[in-house]
Each structure stands twice: as structure tokens, then as C-alpha cells.
Write the C-alpha cells for this entry.
Amino acid sequence: MTVSEPPRPERGRTADERPRDVSAAQLAVEADPTWTGKILALAHPRFWFSMAEGYPVGLKQFLQLGLLFTYPAWLFVVVLYGPLWVIGKIFEGILYVLFWPVRAMHKKNNPEEYAAFQAEQKAKKEARKAANAAYRANRRAKKS
């Protein structure tokens, strides 16, 4: 009598092969290129309650109840984010001026590396500009 073995289990998908586990509300926050748009999307209740998506119904309701109680505190944090961002930008400008001698020395001693870094930064800025333009065109097309 021969015993047939069960078939080998199929290999599961790796993290690279699996789709991202992100809700539509979280994707909307990521898709908005402007920081003001991101802040407004973060303050929307749809984003806050989307954190409970993917759980079984009873647990999801319990999580949403907890999120409901913490939503006012979340709005307070989001409102504080704007002024803190501005303060951070001011601090960044101050550090930029303070560390100017270090950048100038690096530019003088390593001109190729400095030029490569500047080109990389410029490419990132152009890509961000193109993404913002595409996003705005897409929003205009949706509105009309």
C-alpha cells in the first residue's frame, strides 16, 4: 500500500511581490504634492478612521471607537504642525547660513563630488516640479 504525499505548498509571495497594504485615504495623502494639501488630508476623518481598515468587523468597530475618542487630539496635533513646519524652515535657513563655510570648503576641495550632488538635487527638484504639474493638471481635468 502506497501513501501519497500531499502536494508541496506553493511558495508565498515576498514583500516585493505583495501589493502595498495602504488604504485609499492614505494613498490620497501620499498623492497630494503640497504640504498644505497633505495637512488637510491628514485632518480629514476619512484618513483617521482608515487606520482601522483590514481588521475583522468587531475589532474594527472597537478600534474606530478608540479613534473617535482620540480624533480631537489628532486635530490639535495637525493644527500645531503648520507653525512647527514654518519654524523648522526658519531653522533650516539659519543652519544653511551657519554652515556656508563648510559647503564652500567642500566645493573648493571636491568640485566633482559637489557638482554631482548639486546635479542630483536639481534632478530631484525638477522631478518634484513635474509631479506637481501633473497632479495639478489631473485635478483640473477631474474638476471639468
User: Anything to note?
Assistant: The CA atoms of residues 1 and 52 lie 53 Å apart. The chain has a mean pLDDT of 86.
